[in-house]
Amino acid sequence: MIIRKQAHPRAALIGNPSDGYFGRTIAFTFKNFAAIVTLFETPEFRIDPGERDHVCFDSPHAMIAQIRHLGYYGGVRLLQAAVKRFLDFCEEEHILLHKKNFTLRYDTDIPHHLGLAGSSAIITATFRTLMDFYTIEIPNPVLANLALEVETIELGIPAGLQDRVAQAYDTPTVMDFDKDHMEKNGYGMYTPLDPSLLPNLYIAYRTDLSEGSEVAHSNLRYRFEQGHPDVLDAIEFWKDLTLKAEQALKTGHPEKLGPLLDANFDKRRTVCSVSDGNIQMVETARKTGASAKFTGSGGAIIGTFENEAMFDRLQCELSKLNIEVLKPIL
Length: 330
Fold this sequence. Notes:
The protein is of the alpha+beta class. Helices cover 45% and strands 17% of the residues. The strands form 3 sheets. A 4-stranded mixed beta sheet has the order 1-4-6-5. A 4-stranded antiparallel beta sheet has the order 2-3-7-8, with helices on both faces. Strands 10-11-9-12 form a 4-stranded antiparallel beta sheet. The longest helix is centred in the last third of the chain and has 22 residues, at 229-250. The two termini are 30 Å apart.
């Protein structure tokens, strides 16, 4: 028996980074890249290392190049933590599991550390293989929570729910993280959105601008918890933008989305530190007539464009900065 499951990168369309602060966002997954986890029954339990886990190199410089690109930690720890959290969940829920052993291996081509939720894609794909292997169902809101807990509880990595919700539902999703609802139910209010309602979208990324979300959120988290007025106002601003975006899409006015995306990023600049390289990427995209904002914490942007001529200009100008541009496949 061979089980192969996948999960895709996440693009935060609007409202981020309010998702970690009882805010409201819209996000979606796109199929241009994937994290794939394969499971097959074996006499012993084993996790095979992937490309990110290699410890043999042609030279010390080759090792350093990989560290700069992928960091010190590979994907094996993600699979280990996902299996542990899955088994703990089944024990907590008194779900009886068979005793068969298996081997897990993973592969991913999702660009790393660009705010595209590559790590949570590996985790979500792992959960899907385990659910299939043990023939159990986990509701999407619970699946998103478990995927988050793999990083926050098991691995101690600061993270939010938005990425995991988008990957659990695997479709554009409106997410309302209302505090009262979250505290009562353990998860937010999630509403799938028809992908056909979205306008022309592009995603652009530049790997040398990558930065972990924990870096971007550390100071913002502190100021939020301290009740700084500028941060609290920004959260409300992003929540309102999401409501306006949802209304525009559902009423057939996708052309209104671009200015809302721009406003999302402009507000972010007032409360978060943004590197010159990231600002240049956003401003270069905007000069072509497109809108632009971060998909996550930096290194990748998302925006709207009017037509193919504008997309061609966008590709041309961003390529001068060694920036890749793609149309997300929904």
